[in-house]
Specification:
The complex is a heterodimer of chains A (88) and B (472). In chain A, 73% of the residues lie in helices and 0% in strands. Chain A is an all-alpha fold and 88 residues long. The chains are: A mainly alpha (88), B mainly alpha (472). The interface between A and B is large, with 35 and 37 residues.
């Protein structure tokens, strides 16, 4: 039996894990912001999510302006057409 | 709050940072984990929080009593009472209406009209799983596998810990409670491996299981009379892939999420459709349920210690009750009975002279796999059908063809192939890739994880089916 080489510090620190996961979430929101905007809108009946909703709408506008959101939606449409999804 | 939703994404992101920031303060961390788990459960129905707490209270008190000096009177009785209370709660919510319906049908057959009404109670989410967790604790204490916990916090957290709460895996008390004793070490876990486990689970659920379910399996099982023989047969195999992709996805995500919070869960699937024999299948499919049924039902019934007939009876009874655990419906009972009967035959075959002579030959292994796989798929028909009548209609449709054209969407076959691939791929592949990811910097980790997530989001269908095991 051989000893495994020690893992680098970034692999054993939960803060490093958290940063990676937050970065992945942030990128996902930046590429597909409409899901989060809809979610915040749905949960904002009493207005307590107005600030995050405004930020999410801002992200949505930037994402659309740089073409990320439309590109993602286009890819989704293309894939769903390829597999025969009719409701898109 | 299901795993592949924005709700859970936000909940997990919040929990991850909070739990690790409290890691040095173990008791406080457990209080917060319990609060998070209760909030997770309350997101479905806060009224049933009382049920969760009652189950924890029963386990705590019975555990303390049972763990006291062995000579204490009525120790066995206390265990029986605790198990009966847990099962009583399960029976009331899950089975009472079913048994009332059977009683009324029977009474009508004999010309009686009993003045009994249905209780019509809402089935609490996760009741089957939390009952098994509660029983596991008191039986483990009774058997001396672990000392009774003096902390009610630990017991309620064990039963309600949110990654396993809704659909498992069934984590036994002696596997989980010792992990609550001290702060967790992130170094005991591979970040890369668990990240891949979660992303792989999302792919299996959001892409494979959802497409198969929404595009093909659900319509076919809703009204099998409208589909051709070919469609019906393919739907059975498609469902076999769907249920594997769906359920293994849930447990993969649960195991990954728990690991990222610093807790280890047992493996729940090990390439089940490669099984050679039904006994082998149950060592690979929903392994935590199989182990639970073996340790807490089959062995107490006598196991294989009292001859062939008693062994057959115990196997059959265990599987029938295991089937019924999934739901109060004749279809589950028949599914369990079919597996029980197959296990009895499998058990006898593996102990026969013929097996000793021919069992290891390649042709025997091919026959073994073929029979096992097709039997398991056929049994899924009863598991999936909403009623016995629907199952009968389905089988009649295979016989008569229903005179319907073939309507299977072409996407189903690549999805079945893809689902088969995910279960053929050995877990050591994921471990190896995870180790590579562990040794890369955060930028590479983010890039790889995001690329996978991006393609999952792109490929996921608009409509989504709920997790199959969520209903249990």
């Amino acid at each position: 039996m051989t000893d495994r080489p020690p893992k680098p510090a970034s692999a054993t620190s939960p803060w490093s894990w958290t940063r990676v996961i937050y970065a992945v979430f942030a990128l996902a929101v930046f590429c597909f912001p409409s899901g989060l905007v809809e979610w915040l809108d749905e949960h904002n009946a009493s207005g307590w999510l107005s600030a995050p909703l405004a930020i999410a709408r801002g992200v949505d506008a930037v994402s659309t302006a740089v073409g990320l959101e439309p590109a993602g939606q286009q890819l989704r449409k293309w894939f769903q057409a390829a597999v025969g999804e009719s409701d898109t | 709050m299901l795993f592949p939703t924005i709700d859970f994404g936000l909940f997990f992101a919040f929990s991850l940072a909070l739990v690790w920031s409290l890691n040095p303060y173990n008791t406080l961390k457990k209080v917060v984990l319990l609060a998070l788990s209760l909030a997770f459960y309350a997101s479905w129905n806060w009224r049933f929080l009382l049920l969760l707490l009652a189950s924890g209270a029963i386990s705590y008190v019975v555990g303390l009593y049972v763990d006291a000096a062995a000579k204490r009177p009525f120790r066995r009785l206390a265990l029986g009472l605790g198990v009966a209370l847990d099962l009583g709660i399960l029976a009331y919510f899950k089975y009472l209406d079913f048994f009332i319906a059977q009683f009324i049908t029977l009474a009508h057959a004999f010309g009686f009209d009993p003045p009994i009404e249905f209780v019509n109670v809402t089935l609490p989410v996760a009741i089957s799983f939390l009952t098994f967790h509660a029983i596991s604790y008191i039986v483990d204490v009774y058997r001396g596998r672990l000392p009774a916990s003096r902390s009610p916090l630990d017991i309620v957290l064990y039963i309600s810990f949110f990654p396993h709460l809704v659909a498992g895996p069934i984590v036994r008390a002696h596997e989980f409670l010792p992990q609550l004793a001290s702060p967790r070490r992130a170094g005991d876990f591979s970040f890369g491996e668990n990240l891949l486990l979660i992303l792989g689970g999302l792919f299996k659920k959001m892409v494979i299981a959802n497409y198969i379910s929404v595009r093909f399996v659900d319509p076919v099982f809703t009204d099998p009379t409208q589909f051709s023989r070919f469609d019906l047969i393919v739907a059975v195999y498609a469902y076999a892939v769907q249920i594997y992709a769906d359920f293994s996805a849930y447990t993969d995500i649960a195991i990954g999420v728990a690991a990222l919070l610093g807790y280890r869960f047992p493996q729940n699937f090990n390439q089940p459709y490669r099984a050679l024999g039904i006994g082998d299948f149950w060592r690979r499919w929903h392994m935590t349920l199989s182990n639970w049924l073996r340790d807490y039902l089959y062995i107490p019934l006598g196991g294989n210690r009292h001859g062939a007939l008693a062994t057959a009876r115990n196997l059959l009874l265990t599987m029938v009750l295991g089937g019924l655990w999934h739901g109060a419906n004749w279809t589950f009972l028949i599914w369990g009975a079919m597996h029980g009967a197959a296990l009895v035959i499998d058990h006898a075959w593996r102990r026969s002279d013929a097996f000793a002579r021919f069992g290891s030959r390649p042709i025997a292994r091919v026959v073994d796999w073929t029979l096992t796989f097709h039997f398991v798929c056929f049994a899924w028909l009863f598991f999936r059908a909403p009623s016995l009548d629907a199952a009968t209609q389905f089988i009649a449709g295979v016989w008569t063809d229903n005179g319907a054209p073939n309507t299977m969407p072409m996407i189903v076959l690549p999805l079945i192939a893809c689902g088969a691939l995910t279960q053929i791929m050995p877990s050591r592949t994921r471990v190896a890739i995870g180790a590579v990811l562990d040794n890369r910097g955060p930028a590479i980790q983010v890039a790889c994880a995001f690329a996978l997530l991006y393609f999952i989001i792109v490929m996921a269908p608009t409509a989504s089916a709920p997790f199959i095991y969520f209903q249990f």
